[in-house]
Structure formats: structure tokens, C-alpha cells
């Protein structure tokens, strides 16, 4: 028994096992891992490989054969005005939404942390978190009616303020902004909770020390809170960026990419090419591009985050 | 203690209260719109408050929409997905954390890699595979691709690795089989992580829109978010009907959330899942 | 061993889903009670759905051995759903399709051919049946003559209040009346004089104005030609309505509601829209204070127009009860059945004998206007990607009307974009 405790490393422990039990364990591994790996294979590994292969073909699923076209799909997207536009729209959407999300959530999280009344604090957190649990598709429908030109809420408010009404979803200047507003409302709750947890984990002594040094409120935030929150911030930023790149229901339900493709993000373009235009090959090539972009952006963020930590 | 500043604290609380009220406006809009009468809407002059409050919208929802069925579809698929994901994640996590076999590192890395893949990338082949399996327009198509979760396996492995081997060895010596070990010893130890994973798996399954949009056709087979969008398509003019449906769908979600709020928040901070 | 037993249960679980999946495909038709089961898909439009349900009931009464399962989808995603189901080889037995979509399916052999198609097709007007024909074979039966031109909705009361005692008879009168009828307030236009700004009507109006000047919009090689003086004049005339006369605006374009909805809500005095919108007014809005009258020609020529093949029904080649399915769509195409269907849905008959039946106009006086212009319609032509074509015209019309693009530049850009798309589909 004593020896067993000393040799707690798996491999050596395994060597010491009785042959019968060893076989038992192997059977266990085999019996359970196989179905799980099969499922992963069928619905994760295989689709990825298939998607890469499909991107080299011209394939309309209605016909029985696909035509090999080499890199043609990849070359085509760099001359495809709609795709280039959708790339631009995607970056614009992700950039503005992430920045405003981070600023708003950090501000709200620090504000809620200041509230000392326990129940009030919980109430605020609940209210801000509430929208995140509703299906995004439902939220998009409700917001569509709020954006209605004739009898929507937003134009009613503008009317009260004697400002000319705005076509929230069909004016090229406002459409993307409208979707951004809705997206922020729908999911700032996540990041508020994450930031609150991050703030909780900063030991009070850092603040006390800084106050003794005569730091003012802004210095506290800038030189104590922000650096000590950088781990949370990096994590929050990466997950937020990835999730906004994949934003789909709000666009598909609220604007369908209109007007003038001003809200046609890449995720919507892939879906439309695949399921409206039956261009599965081209859509797969776009999906590969999509994956590459997300990987590059994530790696860049990690790099950037690391150099900041060192500082 | 930090310096106290009563005025600033009050101002911050007041600002937060205003922001919180703004957050609640869409809910208010949804509820008020659901009580608008068909007259309010057809006249095209509907204000913020319903002029002739009525239950027209709710009446139409209950007459037109197989409401119970939608909730049932969502509930059944989400529960199966959650149960299966917890089961497969915990098991695979256990195997990867505490067992040795050939190709372990490679398999684990492969599973990790799929975490990075957005659904849009694999959506087309997944659809083609589902079609080949003959599962298009079948609730099984919602369940099957979601029985495993790479993130779940990853989380489970991380948490199970921290369980001391001695504990497992002791149980093995007492004659416990691997499965009993899993259920009796490991599951209780990683329970907080499992409940967090469960909550978010359930929520993601419940709210999923893109995949059901692709594979489901029948109104009777739809899950809640998709059905709502379909319903919206038929009642564009009478939006009081759609708002009524939205209210009815939101109420159970909010109730469930308020009950499990603590676990939600804890789970979110523990796993960082969305 | 215990672990392998559980693994077996897991496997059974997967198998269960696989099997239950196979048995429940959309095309299943054999059932326990020996009935033939047909699945029939259509788009959602209250009047259409009700009319189809009547047909189904009548057919089932005559054929007790057949059971038809009717499923409907919102229009925006209907075509996409059809494509997905045909691609997955699980199509419905019978599908309602828009004529312009049909070639994509018939070209890939996805649709069942109707027996004796050549003769059958002669019973219909050329425009509505055009899309259903391929290489002399008939792949479906049109239910309606899709027509967005020739008629408009008007509120006679509004005209009377402005001292206009009859609907406009010339284009100048139309513009004049529209100007008088437009009501503005501080925020912009409150009641539009003449609304045509919808995804269908911008393009159809543009094309018909070209045709009414005896111009053409097709060049060589399946390319469009929008550089003709007629095209420039047509686009300029439409632009003037929004930019100069200000009898309509772009505010409702892209809205979830149709321009006919705004008409019935009283926000427009005259609205250019197909007769199918009459049904919406009578059913949804319960109003009768409107009329459906001819839109005057742009010139002294006849009111020529371009038309697409509209809604009709097709049978999937993959259907396991093809004979019954074909029988059902032919059942609906019988003269009296079709007449009832056209009357219920406020659609214009695609079948000549229905249009010629005096009973038809008597039962639906609103149809007088559309029937009178049927002869001036021509097939819109070989458009490869319908949505793209219309989107180009609509997008550039908006830019032109908003003064962000000149008429000539706009026409040039949309021509190039459309012709690129035409080439891509070859």
C-alpha cells in the first residue's frame, strides 16, 4: 500500500497492476472511447476534411456529380464584390461590437461592484444577465418590431424628441448600427458576470497599498484594476471576438444582409451560398477562409495579450 | 477599506438603475405589444401602450400554434443532448486523464482542435452526412451531432486530473469496477463542473437556431426558436400574435433562470462557457 | 462485462435514432392502414393555404385511399427549403413552386414529367407555362398567371376628396393625380400618392415602361441591355416619381410589410401591385373601400408588360407514389377546380378556358382589370438568377432615386452585374 502511494504515476502504477485488472481497464477504455471517438469522427473530423475537399469542387447537391475545379473557388472569392464587402462588414461589425461591449461591460461591472447593498447588487446582475438566456432568434424578432419604421419603439422615441424618424433596418447608415445595438443588449450579461468575477479576485490589499501611496480613483483603476484584470480581459476578448465572428441569427432574421449588403456578414454569406444558391463548393471555400481568419485573429490576440502580461 | 464616497456611490447606483431600466424596455415592449388588439395594429397607429388592450394575440397563438409540441420538442432534445454530453464528456475526460493507451495525445489534440472550428465551417458536410443518414426533418438530427462536446471533454479532463490517483487506487483495491469508480467516486468530485457544463449545454441546445433551421421542415417537429421565426413569417402584419408567442416562450426560460441563477453565474465563471 | 454492456446500450441508442430517422423521411407513403400518403408543400399565404386545403379535401373525398399531408412554409425560406430537401433526396411528393424556380430542378431531373405535356401546355398562356417547360417536356402545371403589372389598388374616396372623379387614363394624369393625392407632414410623406417601391414592382415597372416604348431589354447571348434610350427614359421616369414629384419614398422598402399593407392601412392612395394583394385587404384588413383599376400606359402604346411564370405545382421524380401525385395536380388543374382556386386566391387564371369563362369575372369583379391586359404580357426572358437580377435593379434604383448615382451610371453598373451573373450560370 505504501509503495502504491509513492508510485502514483499512472504508467508505473499500470505496470504494477494485476494482468486481469489491466485487461479490464483496457476493455473499459476501448468500450467507451470508441463510441465517443466515432461520434467525434462522424460529426467533427469527417466534416472538416469533407469541407476542405468540397472547397475544390463545383458542387450543386441537386445534381449527382461534382466537378473538380482546383483553386478556382478560392480565386473567385477575391474578385467577388459581395464576398469582399461581406469581409469588410464582418470586420466592421466585430470591431465595433467588441470594443463597445468591452467598454460597456467593464464599466457596468465596476459600477455593480461598488454597490454595497447585497440584494441590489444581485438584482442589477440579474437584470443585465437576463437577456442572455433568451433565444437570440426570439430577441431578433422582438427587436425587429422595435425597429419598425412606422410604429416601432425607436421611431416613437424619436418622435417624442421631435427628431425625424429613421429607417433603422433599411437605411445603409443605420442598419449595421441597429444590429450592433441589439447584439449588445442580448449578450453583455456574460461579460459583466465574467468581469465581476475578475474584479472579485483582485485582493483588496493592492488597493489599500495604492491608496496609502496617494493614488486617486483613476490611478487605482488604471494602475491596479486594469493590469490585474488583464487575464480576465484577454479571455473575455477572445471569446467575444470569436462569438461575434459567428453571429448569425440576428442578421438572418433582422436584415437578411440588406440594404446593399451593408449587413451581409461572412457567416450569412456562407449560409446563403450553400443553402439558397446551392453553391456548396464555393460556400465551403468561404468557410475555409472564415476558419483561417478566426485562427489568425485568435493567435494575434494571444500574442498581443502575452506581450502585455510581460509588461 | 477603500475610501468611501457616499455621493459617488449614490450617483453610480442611480446610473445603474437607469441602465437597468433601459435593459428592461424590450421586455416591456414585448409584453405591451402582445396585448395590442388586431384593431390597434391594423389601424397602423399603434402607440407604446395598447389602445384597446385585448387577448387577440394569445387567442391566435393557442388556436394556430402547436405550442405544447414545440416546448416538448425543445425539452426532449435538450435533455437528451445534455444528459449524453455530460455522460460522454465525463467518461472521455476520465479516460484521457487517468488511463494510458496508444495515440492518447494525438486523439486528445484532435478533439481539442475541433473546439476552434466554428459551426459554419462544418455546417455543409454535417448537413450532407445527416442527409445520407436519412435524418433530415427528424428530431434525431438535432440530437445526434451534439452527443459529444470537445469543450466538455477538455473540461472534464482538466478537473479529473486533479483527483489524486490514490483515491482511485484505493477504490480499485476494494474491488470497484471502472464504471462504478466513475459514478461513485469521480462524478461527485467533479459535480460542480458537471452542473456548469450541464446548464450551458442545455441552454445552447435550447437556443440553437442555425442547425434546426437547416434540418427541420415540419412545424410539428420544430424546436422553439425556429418555430418562433416560422410563426413570425405567417403573422408579420399581426405582430401582437408573435409577441404573445414570444412572451409565452420567455416566461418559462426566466422562471428556470431565476431558480438556477446561482449555479448559472458560478458555472459561467468556472467554465467561461457561452 | 458490465462496461461492454453499457457500450452496447450506447450503440443501441445510436441505432434507434438511425432507424427511427430512416422510417420518417418526408417521402414516406406506405402506412399501416393501406392508404397512400402524399406530402404536399406550399408557401404560406392565408388565401392560398385555404384554397389548397379545399382542393385536398375534395380530392380525398373522391379518393379515400389517398391521404395528403399539407405543409406550409414562410415565403422567405421556402425556396431554400425546397432546394435543401431535393438536394437531400427527401423531397415532398408534391411541391408548389414558383415558375421561375422550376428550370433549376427540371434540369437536374428532379421533377416528374407530365404525360402528354405538349398538348397540355397549349391550354395555358405562354408566360405562365414557360418556366414549366424544358426541351418540349412539361414538368408541372401553373396555377396562376403571375402578374404585377397593369393594375393598381386605389382608394376612390381619397381621389374624390381631391376632385378626381375617375382613375387616371394617361401617364400624365397618373402623375398629376399622384401629386394631388400625396399628403405630407413634418416628418415626410404621410399618404403616398402613387406607391410602386416594392421588391417586385420597381423591376416590373421599369421593364414594362421599356416595353411600352416599344423598346427591348434583352441584348445578345442572354445578356440584358439597359443602355437603350428607352431604358434611360424608363428609369428617369421612375426616379422622377420619387426624387422630383415626391409621390412615394424609399422608407417602406425592405420593411417586413408589403406595400399593399401600407395601402390598406391608409398610407397610400394608389399602389401598384398584383391582384393577389386584394385578398389580403379583404381578409386581413376587412376593408372594402378600395378598387382595382388599370395603370395607364407610359406611352400611347398598349400597356405591354413582362411577366414571370407564377405559382404552380410539380411532382418529385423521387416520389414513391408518383402516379397518385401526378393525378392530384391534374385534378387541381381541371377547369372548375382551377376556377375556384383562382377565385379563392385572387389570382389571374393561367389556363385559357378559365380566363375566358364569363362566370369568372362575374364572381370576382376585381379581376376585370387584370384579364383585360393578359394579352399584352410577354415572358420575362431567360433570367439565370431571379433574386440577383431583381436585387440589382432595386438596389440601383434606390441609389438613383436618392441622387447618389446618375441614371446612366446606375443602368451601366446593374447591366454589368446582371450580365456577369448570366455568364456565371452558363
UniProtKB/TrEMBL annotation, chain A:
TM stretches of this protein: 28-53, 87-111, 123-146, 174-199, 220-245, 282-302
Pfam families recorded: BPD_transp_1
Protein name: Sugar ABC transporter permease
Keyword Transport carried by entry: yes
Coiled-coil regions listed in the entry: none
CDD domains: TM_PBP2
Annotated keywords: Cell membrane, Membrane, Transmembrane, Transmembrane helix, Transport
SUPFAM superfamilies (UniProt xref): MetI-like
Domain ABC transmembrane type-1: 87-301
Subcellular localization, as worded in the UniProt entry: Cell membrane
Family assignment from sequence similarity: Belongs to the binding-protein-dependent transport system permease family.
Gene label: lacF
Membrane topology per record: Multi-pass membrane protein
Automatic annotation (TrEMBL), chain B:
Database matches in SUPFAM superfamilies: MetI-like
InterPro entries linked: MetI-like (IPR000515), MetI-like_sf (IPR035906)
Main location per the UniProt record: membrane
Entry keyword annotation includes Cell membrane: yes
Ranges annotated as spanning the membrane: 7-29, 67-94, 106-129, 135-160, 181-203, 241-260
UniProt keyword Kinase present: no
Domain (ABC transmembrane type-1) ranges: 71-260
Subcellular location: Cell membrane
Membrane topology: Multi-pass membrane protein
Top-level division of the source organism's lineage: Bacteria
Family annotation (Gene3D superfamilies): MetI-like (1.10.3720.10)
Keywords per UniProt: Cell membrane, Membrane, Transmembrane, Transmembrane helix, Transport
Family note: Belongs to the binding-protein-dependent transport system permease family.
Protein name: Sugar ABC transporter permease
UniProt organism field: Paenibacillus cookii
UniProtKB/TrEMBL annotation, chain C:
Coiled coil location: none
Pfam families attached to this UniProt entry: SBP_bac_8 (PF13416)
Keyword set, alphabetical order: Signal, Transport
Signal peptide per UniProt: 1-24
Domain of life the protein comes from: Bacteria
Membership in a protein family: Belongs to the bacterial solute-binding protein 1 family.
PANTHER family attached to this UniProt entry: MALTOSE-BINDING PERIPLASMIC PROTEIN, MALTOSE_MALTODEXTRIN-BINDING PERIPLASMIC PROTEIN
Protein name, entry field: ABC transporter substrate-binding protein
Organism, scientific name: Paenibacillus cookii
Amino acid at each position: 500500500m505504501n509503495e502504491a502511494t509513492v508510485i502514483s504515476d499512472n504508467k508505473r502504477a499500470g505496470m504494477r497492476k494485476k494482468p486481469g485488472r489491466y485487461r479490464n481497464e483496457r476493455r473499459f477504455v476501448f468500450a467507451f472511447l470508441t463510441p465517443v471517438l466515432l461520434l467525434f469522427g462522424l460529426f467533427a473530423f469527417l466534416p472538416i476534411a469533407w469541407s476542405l475537399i468540397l472547397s475544390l469542387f463545383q458542387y450543386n447537391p441537386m445534381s449527382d456529380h461534382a466537378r473538380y475545379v482546383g483553386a478556382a473557388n478560392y480565386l473567385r472569392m477575391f474578385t467577388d464584390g459581395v464576398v469582399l464587402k461581406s469581409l469588410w462588414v464582418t470586420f466592421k461589425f466585430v470591431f465595433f461590437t467588441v470594443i463597445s461591449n468591452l467598454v460597456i461591460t467593464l464599466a457596468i461591472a465596476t459600477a455593480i461592484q461598488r454597490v454595497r447593498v447585497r440584494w441590489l447588487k444581485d438584482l442589477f446582475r440579474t437584470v443585465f444577465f437576463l437577456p442572455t438566456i433568451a433565444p437570440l432568434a426570439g430577441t431578433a424578432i422582438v427587436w425587429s418590431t422595435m425597429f419598425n419604421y412606422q410604429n416601432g419603439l425607436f421611431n416613437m422615441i424619436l418622435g417624442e424628441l421631435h427628431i425625424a424618424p429613421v429607417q433603422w433596418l433599411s437605411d445603409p447608415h443605420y442598419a449595421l448600427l441597429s444590429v450592433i445595438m441589439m447584439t449588445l443588449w442580448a449578450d453583455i450579461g456574460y461579460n459583466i458576470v465574467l468581469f465581476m468575477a475578475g474584479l472579485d479576485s483582485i485582493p483588496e490589499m493592492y488597493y489599500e497599498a495604492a491608496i496609502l501611496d496617494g493614488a486617486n480613483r483613476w490611478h487605482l483603476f488604471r494602475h491596479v484594476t486594469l493590469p490585474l484584470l488583464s487575464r480576465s480581459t484577454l479571455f473575455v476578448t477572445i471569446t467575444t471576438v470569436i462569438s461575434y465572428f459567428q453571429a448569425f441569427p440576428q442578421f438572418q432574421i433582422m436584415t437578411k444582409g440588406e440594404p446593399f449588403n451593408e449587413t451581409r456578414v461572412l457567416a450569412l454569406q456562407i449560409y446563403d451560398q450553400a443553402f439558397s444558391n446551392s453553391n456548396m463548393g464555393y460556400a465551403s471555400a468561404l468557410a475555409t477562409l472564415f476558419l483561417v481568419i478566426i485562427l489568425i485573429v485568435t493567435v494575434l490576440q494571444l500574442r498581443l495579450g502575452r506581450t502585455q502580461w510581460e509588461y | 477599506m477603500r475610501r468611501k464616497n457616499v455621493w459617488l456611490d449614490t450617483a453610480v447606483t442611480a446610473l445603474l438603475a437607469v441602465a437597468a431600466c433601459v435593459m428592461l424596455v424590450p421586455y416591456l415592449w414585448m409584453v405591451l405589444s402582445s396585448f395590442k388588439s388586431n384593431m390597434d395594429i391594423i389601424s397602423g397607429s399603434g402607440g407604446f401602450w395598447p389602445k384597446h388592450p385585448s387577448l387577440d394575440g394569445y387567442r391566435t397563438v393557442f388556436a394556430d400554434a402547436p405550442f405544447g409540441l414545440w416546448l416538448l420538442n425543445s425539452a426532449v432534445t435538450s435533455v437528451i443532448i445534455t444528459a449524453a454530453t455530460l455522460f460522454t464528456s465525463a467518461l472521455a475526460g476520465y479516460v484521457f486523464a487517468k488511463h494510458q493507451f496508444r495515440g492518447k495525445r494525438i486523439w486528445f489534440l484532435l478533439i481539442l482542435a475541433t473546439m476552434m472550428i466554428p459551426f459554419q465551417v462544418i455546417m455543409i458536410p454535417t448537413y450532407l452526412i445527416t442527409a445520407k443518414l436519412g435524418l433530415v426533418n427528424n428530431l434525431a438530427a438535432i440530437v445526434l451531432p451534439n452527443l459529444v462536446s470537445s469543450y466538455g471533454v477538455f473540461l472534464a479532463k482538466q478537473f479529473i486530473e486533479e483527483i489524486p490517483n490514490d483515491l482511485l487506487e484505493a477504490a480499485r483495491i476494494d474491488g470497484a469496477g471502472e464504471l462504478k469508480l466513475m459514478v461513485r467516486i469521480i462524478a461527485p468530485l467533479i459535480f460542480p463542473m458537471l452542473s456548469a457544463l450541464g446548464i450551458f449545454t442545455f441552454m445552447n441546445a435550447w437556443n440553437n437556431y442555425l442547425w434546426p433551421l437547416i434540418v427541420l421542415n415540419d412545424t410539428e417537429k420544430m424546436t422553439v426558436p425556429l418555430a418562433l421565426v416560422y410563426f413570425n413569417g405567417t403573422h408579420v402584419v399581426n405582430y401582437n400574435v408573435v409577441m404573445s408567442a414570444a412572451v409565452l416562450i420567455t416566461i418559462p426560460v426566466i422562471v428556470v433562470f431565476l431558480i438556477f441563477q446561482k449555479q448559472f453565474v458560478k458555472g459561467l465563471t468556472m467554465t467561461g462557457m457561452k | 462485462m458490465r462496461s461492454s454492456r453499457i457500450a452496447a446500450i450506447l450503440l443501441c441508442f445510436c441505432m434507434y435514432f438511425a432507424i427511427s430517422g430512416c422510417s420518417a423521411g418526408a417521402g414516406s407513403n406506405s402506412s399501416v392502414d393501406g392508404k397512400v400518403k402524399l406530402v404536399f408543400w406550399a408557401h404560406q399565404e392565408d388565401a392560398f393555404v385555404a384554397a389548397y386545403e379545399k382542393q385536398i379535401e375534395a380530392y380525398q373525398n373522391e379518393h379515400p385511399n389517398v391521404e395528403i399531408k399539407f405543409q406550409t412554409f414562410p415565403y422567405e425560406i421556402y425556396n431554400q427549403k425546397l432546394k435543401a430537401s431535393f438536394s437531400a433526396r427527401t423531397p415532398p411528393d408534391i411541391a408548389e413552386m414558383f415558375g421561375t424556380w422550376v428550370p433549376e430542378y427540371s434540369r437536374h431531373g428532379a421533377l416528374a414529367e407530365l404525360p402528354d405535356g405538349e398538348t397540355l401546355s397549349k391550354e395555358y398562356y405562354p408566360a405562365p407555362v414557360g418556366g414549366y417547360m424544358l426541351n418540349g417536356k412539361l414538368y408541372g402545371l401553373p396555377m396562376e398567371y403571375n402578374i404585377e403589372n397593369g393594375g393598381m389598388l386605389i382608394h376612390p374616396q381619397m381621389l374624390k376628396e381631391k376632385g378626381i372623379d375617375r382613375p387616371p387614363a394617361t401617364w400624365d394624369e397618373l402623375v398629376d393625380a399622384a401629386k394631388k393625392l400625396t399628403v405630407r407632414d413634418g416628418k415626410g410623406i404621410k399618404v403616398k400618392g402613387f406607391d410602386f417601391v416594392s421588391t417586385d414592382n420597381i423591376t416590373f415597372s421599369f421593364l414594362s415602361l421599356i416595353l411600352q416604348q416599344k423598346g427591348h431589354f434583352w441584348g445578345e447571348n442572354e445578356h440584358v441591355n439597359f443602355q437603350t434610350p428607352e431604358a434611360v427614359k424608363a428609369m428617369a421616369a421612375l426616379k422622377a416619381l420619387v426624387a422630383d414629384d415626391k409621390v412615394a419614398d424609399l422608407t417602406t422598402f425592405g420593411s417586413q410589410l408589403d406595400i399593399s399593407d401600407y395601402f390598406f392601412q391608409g398610407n397610400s392612395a394608389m399602389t401598384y401591385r398584383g391582384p393577389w394583394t386584394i385578398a389580403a385587404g379583404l381578409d386581413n384588413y376587412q376593408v372594402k373601400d378600395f378598387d382595382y383599376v388599370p395603370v395607364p400606359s407610359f406611352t400611347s402604346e398598349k400597356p405591354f408588360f413582362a411577366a414571370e411564370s407564377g405559382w404552380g405545382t410539380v411532382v418529385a421524380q423521387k416520389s414513391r407514389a408518383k402516379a397518385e401525385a401526378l393525378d392530384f395536380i391534374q385534378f387541381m388543374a381541371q377547369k372548375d377546380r382551377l376556377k375556384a382556386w383562382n377565385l379563392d386566391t385572387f389570382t389571374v387564371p393561367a389556363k385559357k378556358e378559365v380566363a375566358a369563362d364569363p362566370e369568372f369575372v362575374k364572381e370576382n369583379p376585381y379581376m376585370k382589370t387584370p384579364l383585360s391586359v393578359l394579352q399584352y404580357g410577354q415572358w420575362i426572358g431567360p433570367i439565370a438568377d431571379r433574386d440577383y437580377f431583381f436585387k440589382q435593379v432595386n438596389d440601383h434604383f434606390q441609389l438613383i432615386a436618392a441622387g447618389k448615382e446618375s441614371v446612366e451610371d446606375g443602368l451601366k453598373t446593374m447591366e454589368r452585374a446582371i450580365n456577369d451573373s448570366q455568364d456565371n450560370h452558363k
